[in-house]
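Hmm, how's this folded?
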Amino acid sequence: MRAGRSRDLPALYNEVLAKSQDPHMRDYVYRHLARAQVQPANIDAAIATMRKALNESLANDAKMHAQMEKMHARMDAMRTNRWLLLRGPARDDG
């Protein structure tokens, strides 16, 4: 990209981040935003961008794991209910 336009990149990347929820797109844009911020020696902004990207990725990962745990719990409950239905009524052999 021409040197005169490269300073416009951070604003463009931030606009994409504001509009996109696609995790792959956001990861790509965060990386390029940090790279664009490093070029004019804005190291603090680049580090802040990478930290923001990492925190977002960790939050998404935690959310995914929580959803998977809920799904496993529901599946276990369904298996237990199915087993109880197949077993039939409890008998008192006393």
In short: The chain has one domain: 3-87. Residues 32 and 75 are 41 Å apart (CA to CA). The chain has a mean pLDDT of 85.
